[in-house]
Amino acid sequence: MGLRKRIGVMIPSTNTSCEADFQMAAPQGVTIHGQRLWLTNDEQGEAAMDRMNSEIESGARYLATANVDVVAYGCTTGSFYKGSGWDRDMIELIERKAGVPALATSPCAVEALHHFKAKKVSVASPYPEWNNQKLHAYLEAAGFEVLNVEGEPRAAKAGPQGINDQDPEDVARFASGVCRPEADVLFCSCTAWRSMEVVDELEQRTGKPVVTSNQALVWAAFRKAGVQQPIHGYGKLLE
């Protein structure tokens, strides 16, 4: 039967969606192994991200002991809030400490948007304004025309932990309304938001390719680990 492919996933401690999305998409012979980074529901903003990311180095060392094939950093805000350049530094740090290839959510999302040759992008998120402004700047720096970045108000008020509890159907209703007709792709940001479960529905509603944070991370991590088979049910990207 051969050895399993092992994917290490490094996530905020409040996040209960990212590992679940990886597990839903994982084909037989691929296992998912989580490492949590400290975050509480009361913490937001740059100081919270700095505190959480201070554990990246130790988290990478822990995952290395599981002999994972690749490490995926599963936080979108944590990989875009310092702008372009920080994401590459983060990946290099993880690779040095884990001794295996690493990926981070935001650059994976950018790669997925380029895969669809996107130039104009609409963005739906569960974020408060601070995150949305940082994300807008990050995507513009990556070369996209960002038509809009809109946060779902109830999810934004629920905090990092509460985001996980929003019903995917509510995510689909909000995100589909955010997508502008002239957008090439709709991007649903945040690895705690359960948007990957409704990618097919969103693509039907909008008539556009849809990229979500977890879907892009799964896509990139599986390819990096040598997992090539199409995965159905989670949008055109994974198919």
SSE blueprint and pairings:
Elements: E1 5-12, H1 18-25, E2 30-37, H2 45-53, H3 56-64, E3 70-73, H4 77-80, H5 86-98, E4 102-104, H6 105-115, E5 120-125, H7 129-141, E6 145-151, H8 153-162, H9 168-178, E7 185-188, H10 199-206, E8 210-212, H11 213-224
Parallel strand pairs: 1-2, 1-3, 3-4, 5-6, 5-7, 7-8
Shape: globular
Structural class: alpha/beta
Strand order across the biggest sheet? Answer: 2-1-3-4
* Gyration radius over CA: 16 Å
- The number of helical segments is 11
Query: SSE order, as H and E?
Result: EHEHHEHHEHEHEHHEHEH
Query: For the report, how would you describe the main beta sheet?
Result: 4 strands, parallel
Instruction: Flag low-confidence runs.
Output: none
Helical percentage:
40-55%
How much β-strand is present in the residues? 15-25%
Q: Please report the total strand number as a whole number.
A: 8
Q: What's the average pLDDT?
A: 96
Measure the end-to-end span.
25 Å
Describe the protein in words.
- It contains eleven helices and eight strands.
- The chain is an alpha/beta fold and 239 residues long.
- α3 (56-64) packs parallel to α5 and α6 (105-115) packs across α11.
- The longest helix has 13 residues, at 86-98.
- It is globular, with a radius of gyration of 16 Å.
- The two termini are 25 Å apart.
- The mean pLDDT is 96.
Concise summary:
By secondary structure, the chain is of the alpha/beta class. 45% of the residues lie in helices and 18% in strands. α3 (56-64) packs parallel to α5 (86-98), α6 crosses α11 and α9 (168-178) packs parallel to α10.
